[in-house]
Amino acid sequence: MKDMIDFIILIILYFALFYKKWKVKGKDVLLVNTTMYIYLSFVLYFTLMPIVASIPTAFHHHYKGMNLVPFIDVLMGRGDFMRQLVLNVIMMIPFGFLFPLVRNENAKLIKTILYAFLLSLSIEILQPLINGFRASDITDIITNVIGGIIGYIMYFIFKPLTNKILNCIKNK
Fold it and tell me: pTM to 2 decimals?
């Protein structure tokens, strides 16, 4: 139920700030940007939510610093590290694919990597702040960036098909 508050706020933000602005730019821009917005909303859901309900207690628990030893869970055989690695890579593949589309193809691989890194770093810094049970880890940032790179490679491979689809939508 706490997550619903966040989703309601995200829906209000979408219609109040973005929908009209994107719709004016064309159906193709509306589709791509809305898809990215929905994707980022789910990233927030799986990594940070509930946010609004957590605000009153955000500063009432110990902030755990980020683990800066890459792949320590793998090396120590702790927990379900393989599942975490795979999920972190998968989570960012759509970002790597959608980011160049949102940027209207002005995003090269380096820019996509930078933004995937910044998104992942932001999430990792905020996780322990919002919820005292979550930890941040350099491994998550590394695997998220790898996912962004894989997504960009997929974008590059499917660019002709994606352009064809978006041009069809644009011309309708």
Answer: 0.90
